[in-house]
Amino acid sequence: MPVRFLLIFGAFLLSMLMWIDRACISAAKKDIALDLNFDDTQMGWVMGAFTLGYALLQVPGGKMADRFGPRIVMTVVCVLWSIFTMLTGVARAFYMMLATRFFFGVGEAAGYPTISRALVSWLPVQERGVTNSLIFSGGRLGAAIAMPGVVWLIAVAGGWQQAFFLLGAFGLIAAVAWYLLFRNTPETHFAVQESERTYILANRPQDSNNVGEPGAAYSTAQILGAPTMWMLMVQYVAHNFTFFFVVSWFFPYLQKEYSLTPVQTGQYAMMPLLCGVAGNWLSGITVDTLYRFGRWNLSRRLPAMIGFVLAAAGMIGCVNMTTPFYAVLAMCVAIFGSDMVLSPSWSTCLDIGGRSTGAVSGSMNMVGNLGSFCTALAFPYLVALSGNHKPFFYLAAGLNIVAIVMWCFIRADRPLIEKLESKSGD
User: Fold this and answer.
1) The 3-state secondary structure of the chain, one letter per residue
2) Which domains does the chain possess?
3) Which residues in the chain show pLDDT less than 70?
4) Residues 62-121: pLDDT tens digits?
């Protein structure tokens, strides 16, 4: 088996674990709130604290992966997020919980940018769409497992604190495995055969070849000054605003709105995430198929635009649902569509980023996760102000429509630096 396939499988497992550790706070929300006497707005801040720390460290984390390489950076990332997952079980006061979840977000921040930096060195261009969909579907599968799984783990382990201790321990094991088995490039990996090495090098852009080469990376100012970068960031805000709802407030919303048991809620709440897995797969296949037919830009634009149409329709559909079945069905449509956006978004970062892929993908994910932060707070506050859930769902649908417009202008076939040079010459 080609070693790059084992890399993809390892990244899939890391993606699963990252999202299990993120989503467990939603499944444990009721237990935490009762134990620590937190109300919904306080829990909104607890959930939002993660996304704020996660967003703020995206660009520095991505630049560290570009400079020092994915091997050491991902090892440190795994250790940090696992420690703060365990410390979540220790927190007893509101501000201690806020700080713990903030630094948990800081710990996970470099995760996906580091994986992207690994892929740009290891993968031919024609394999990027399916690979990104596989890795992100791992995250969705992890979040889906977390919904009923954490409820079960809390019962078996004897409390929500013990569940967080166990999850953190799994992450420490993953850190050791990554450090021992991964290398920054296929040229330096001990198990890569010459035929695979030759194939990768022949089908990989030349500016993807080295990690940490002096002068190879774009500056932060160049990245953030590019119009394509801003459009990628805006559309990713819309994606995250929609998706983060299903791993933060959807579980408690279903449980409270329809008077469900924790087990029933977990079974319902995992369904949209499983649909997200399917959306990831369909999108990844579409991305790579269209690329092979020579339609580079269309391969990124079409699945993303279809995804945002479905996401907007699903969020509007949630407005007037009166049964848990139809509420979950509408959310399944929304998350299926929203997750169709992932493969084209991250593939575009690989396309335009080159040796700065870590920083480019980190920039997109940084601003996008400010959308997650807004979701964590917007839902409880809008409900408190308006007395119902409708304004939140309409706002999410509107953001998805804006994202469709963004994709009309995003070009994946031009490196980011070319756009900057063209701009400076006008």
Assistant:
1) CCHHHHHHHHHHHHHHHHHHHHHHHHHCHHHHHHHHCCCHHHHHHHHHHHHHHHHHCHHHHHHHHHHHCHHHHHHHHHHHHHHHHHHHCCCCCHHHHHHHHHHHHHHHCCHHHHHHHHHHHHCCHHHHHHHHHHHHHHHHHHHHHHHHHHHHHHHHHCCHHHHHHHHHHHHHHHHHHHHHHCCCCHHHCCCCCHHHHHHHHHCCCHHHCCCCCCCCCCCHHHHHCCHHHHHHHHHHHHHHHHHHHHCCCHHHHHHHHCCCCHHHHHHHHHHHHHHHHHHHHHHHHHHHHHHHCCCHHHHHHHHHHHHHHHHHHHHHHCCCCCCHHHHHHHHHHHHHHHHCCHHHHHHHHHHHHHHHHHHHHHHHHHHHHHHHHHHHHHHHHHHHHHCCCHHHHHHHHHHHHHHHHHHCCCCCCCCHHHHHHHHHCC
2) 3-207+217-424 (1.20.1250.20)
3) 205-217, 417-426
4) 888 888 999 999 999 999 999 999 999 999 899 999 999 999 999 998 898 899 888 888
